[in-house]
Amino acid sequence: MPRTSDGDGTPVPQRLLAAATRLFAEQGYDRTSVQEIVEAAGVTKGALYHYFGSKDDLLHEVYARVLRLQQERLDTFADADEPVDKRLRDAAADVVVTTIENLDDASIFFRSMHHLSPEKNKQVRAERRRYHERFRALIEEGQQAGVFTKETPADLVVDYHFGSVHHLSTWYRPDGPLSPQELADHLADLLLRALRP
Amino acid sequence: MPRTSDGDGTPVPQRLLAAATRLFAEQGYDRTSVQEIVEAAGVTKGALYHYFGSKDDLLHEVYARVLRLQQERLDTFADADEPVDKRLRDAAADVVVTTIENLDDASIFFRSMHHLSPEKNKQVRAERRRYHERFRALIEEGQQAGVFTKETPADLVVDYHFGSVHHLSTWYRPDGPLSPQELADHLADLLLRALRP
DNA sequence: GGCGCCAGACTAACCAGTCGGTATGCCCGA
DNA sequence: TCGGGCATACCGACTGGTTAGTCTGGCGCC
């Protein structure tokens, strides 16, 4: 009964995406063969190339999914009806929690950018920039309002914080002493303290 | 006259290392063929395998060089005869400058760890940990002395800062408005402000 | 009877590492 | 001072294995 799914109920494209995400995170993009992916998803190459144009395409889909999710969440927090320092704090903490919940995505995101074709890379960078700008705007708003110090350019602060978020996939261990939320609170504290006038 | 160097004066092993560093940073480890490396260095495979055991070995050498340099510099700053907040500030700013001066090394470092053989990976991690501990000790010393807040565990602060340093290779552009030193000062400021009690 | 969905053999390209061979300088005995 | 043995430094063709992507065909639903 071949009809976009079998065995378990999830559709083939999603199974492929899930398998690819896990394998890319574990072994890296180049070290993962298309053969491995299709075996992990319980299908064959025919299926993969039916739904995706190339291996590169598969990677691009992973990026698209992550970007969409993060942007949505940021918008939610940034648009909330709260004082700017609370909005920033919530957004900063949320991105940490979300990243931890999708650690595979995160390690792929930063480690495999250069495997995307130039045009897809450009596209991802553009979306990434939008995200960055939104976050920066939040900080600038606080700086104008006098809630945050103006000593450090907002751009730098954003990169400082996201550097640490990016780094999470390198050192965070689920069996560590801190829950994702506790960790997120700490990191958000660091950011907010660094912004204190 | 083949005798460890020719054309320019630099010895062949160093030429190979330099070529490999550049290419690994530009294209990633897997995307760089041994053939490309030897061509960039102006030799052939015979030469490469004469000096290095494997492609993996070459990568390991890059890591060894970076680790040695960073550890040396950290030790210098941490052992200085200065108050703890100045020592931390200097160390934190120096690692930024050094990283910018060797951006290729930095992007390889975090992007290609998983390409090292398991045992070499372990070795690199161990050395990395030593570095981390030294830095953490500095922060803990300040916390004990009451110069830094104890609100955030020292470990976390270290990862927070190095996350941003790591991230540098992603967004830093030499033609940007800030000199490496200015940027380093800003990032060190952020760290110190986040640690203010 | 056609179309979406997929299987799996096949191909053309590439790549790390090997290996037999060559060239050069150095040491040491005669 | 000569020469021959030996080590170091390197060359480049070759091999065995792997890989992304193609293509032909078949199965079942509408």
Automatic annotation (TrEMBL), chains A, B:
Which residues fall under the DNA-binding region feature?
33-52
Q: Report the Pfam families cross-referenced here.
A: TetR_C_24, TetR_N
Protein source organism = Streptomyces viridiviolaceus
Q: What is the lineage of its organism?
A: Bacteria, Bacillati, Actinomycetota, Actinomycetes, Kitasatosporales
Domain of life according to the entry = Bacteria
Which InterPro entries does UniProt cross-reference here?
DNA-bd_HTH_TetR-type_CS, Homeodomain-like_sf, HTH-type_TetR-like_transc_reg, HTH_TetR, KstR2_TetR_C, Tet_transcr_reg_TetR-rel_C_sf
Q: What is this protein called?
A: TetR/AcrR family transcriptional regulator
Instruction: Please report the stretch or stretches of sequence annotated as the HTH tetR-type domain.
Output: 10-70
Q: Please indicate if the UniProt record lists tRNA processing as a keyword.
A: no
Q: Which UniProt keywords apply?
A: DNA-binding, Repressor, Transcription, Transcription regulation
